[in-house]
Amino acid sequence: MSKIDSIEITHHRLPLDPPFKASWDGRARRHFDATIVRVTDDEGRVGIGSGDLMKGFEGHEDLFIGQDPRHLERHYEVLSHINFHYGRCWPMDLALWDLSGKITGEPVWRMLGGRSDRVRLYASSGVLREPSAMAEQAERYIDEGFPALKVRFSSSSGGRNSWRDDVKALEAIRARVGDRIELMVDCNQGWRMPWDTTLPWTFKDALAVARELEKLGIYWMEEPLFRSDRKGMKRLSDATDLRIAGGEMTRELYEFRDIIEERAFDVIQPDVALVGGITGCRRLAYQAREAGVMFTPHSWTNGIGVLANAHLTAGVGDAPWLEYPYDNPEWSEARRDYPMAAPLKHNRGWLDLGEAPGLGVVLDEDRLKATRV
């Protein structure tokens, strides 16, 4: 029986020059942090996870050392308790799935059900651009084979002046490319960066925006209200033809249970690196399916997090697309995936997962050594 021998957590920082100014953060980002979790068994196999910062895990290693890494449900329970008392340590779950796959010789997507070995992607932009530049970017995404694009609205005073300016960017895209690409919108109203005290939209604000988005044939409207306003989300869903999406930063699985039961969202977007890990989020995939709610994970961490969400999505086979953070040049695949030996590369809007055991992660140890903090 394989046993966990050691757990190593390292932190890394990649300088960003030029900086990345994310639509949800008016402050330009001059570095990109990544935390790497390595779980080694007594035969020297190493499972790798990444995503959140693993704050609160230190001092709990003894709860895992000596255990069989394949006892994933047991480990999930321990991590859920750590999540309650301390912090989000779900990258540990990803590392355990990776290690379990290496022990069994199977890719995680097959361990999860094996519905597919690849996922369809939507391009997830992150930068606020002038309308003409957004239209040009949409053309490039189409040329690369992406079937859908998510456009960001500004969340604070550091972005565009109002949501009407955001709508102009969408209008420019539609004028340029017509219906050759599906469009989604992230309204960025569900949460704020710590320094950002801008109030979120009211229900009436969100409804006014929804009316404009309906005219443009938008596929879903993401995070249109503050995260606690589930009743408002349900009202908005009932009042518009748009699908209402959200949940990327939801902390607890039981919150998703209530969201699904109440049909508060049409689309739920948990991220295995931020809530529940693969073990917890697979529960949500099945709950959502039974309720007729779309399941498509958020994945804006790094390539390891993208891979983990992709394996879950492929294994259970529920999502029409998976989020692919990608907005050249400010958010390139090379920047996003710097901990990895080679960045992920989509194939005409598809991510092929292959037969490598576990998650298929290969680290760039030299880069990690150079960026360690």
From TrEMBL:
Isomerase in keyword set: yes
Keyword set includes Isomerase: yes
Cofactor: Mg(2+)
Keyword entries, A-Z: Isomerase, Magnesium, Metal-binding
InterPro entries xrefs: Enolase-like_C_sf (IPR036849), Enolase-like_N (IPR029017), Enolase_C-like (IPR029065), Mandelate_racemase_C (IPR013342), RHMD-like (IPR046945)
GO terms under biological process: carbohydrate catabolic process
Pfam families registered for this protein in UniProt: MR_MLE_C
Name of this chain's protein: Isomerase
GO molecular function: hydro-lyase activity; isomerase activity; magnesium ion binding
PANTHER family with a match to the protein in the record: ENOLASE SUPERFAMILY, MANDELATE RACEMASE, MITOCHONDRIAL ENOLASE SUPERFAMILY MEMBER 1
Domain Mandelate racemase/muconate lactonizing enzyme C-terminal: 131-243
